Amino acid sequence: MAKFLERIDDKIRRFIGEQKMFFTASAPLAAAGRVNLSPKGIDTFRVLDDRTVCYLDLTGSGNETAAHLAENGRLTVMFCSFAGAPLILRLYGRGAVVHRNSPKWPELAALFDDFPGIRQIIVLHVESLQTSCGYAVPVYEFKEDRDQLIEWAAKKGADGIEEYRREKNRTSIDGLPTGLSD
User: Fold this and answer.
1) Residue 13: which of 76, 72, 91 has the closest Cα?
2) What distance in Å separates the CA atoms of residue 56 and residue 159, rounded to the nearest whole number?
3) Is 3.30.559.10 the CATH number for 3-168?
4) DSSP code of 119?
5) pLDDT at 30 over 80
6) Of 136, 123, 19, which Cα lies nearest the Cα of 65?
7) Burial letters for 137-148: b for 16+ Cβ neighbours within 10 Å, e otherwise?
8) Region for residue 65 given its phi and psi (left: phi exceeds 0; alpha: psi -120 to 50; beta: otherwise)
9) Where exactly are the structural domains of the chain?
10) pLDDT for 70-106, tens place per residue?
11) β-strand 3-5 against 45-49: which pairing, if any?
């Protein structure tokens, strides 16, 4: 049932565009380190070309993906159809974090709405794609995006978000540096 693909074709690009949620998975090299699996939503995912994608990373409680990418670069992104035809899509590859001070920031940031609390952009260079059936995934109806994270960030303001990142987002839960600086 699983099928590996070489690139993101038009059919896969449409599938990605129809999804309201995706998941990211990363892990440190240490056997005792925690595997991180995070759900993502809102309109924060873009396909750049047939081997490259990115997503806008909003400030949250942790910054595990950035720490794992700094250490080893491994990242998997998964989309799962909860409506329509069943399908699971995994994008495997090497990721990189693009911070505001990067020369790449203006071009990538222009692809997204300017939400409060934007932390960084994660770019994934896709090495392989895998589809699988998704037959056991339940059907759900999308109601709406939650806006609590955006409201939280707006209420904190730019200075409050920066302070929060200094306190909560500079290292992973396993103590790895995330690459965020003052």
Assistant:
1) 91
2) 20
3) no
4) E
5) yes
6) 123
7) eeeeeeeeeeee
8) alpha
9) 3-168
10) 999 999 999 999 999 999 999 999 999 999 999 999 9
11) unpaired
Distance CA 73, CA 115 (A): 26
How far apart are the C-alpha atoms of 116 and 155, rounded to whole Å? 9
> CB count, 10 Å around CB of 69?
21
Count, residues in the chain: 182
Please name the residue ranges forming H helices in 9-63.
10-18
* Residue 10: predicted pLDDT: 97
Specify the amino acid at residue 96.
Answer: A
pTM of the predicted model as reported, rounded to 2 decimal places: 0.95
For the chain, percent helix, then strand, then coil, each to nearest 5?
25, 35, 45
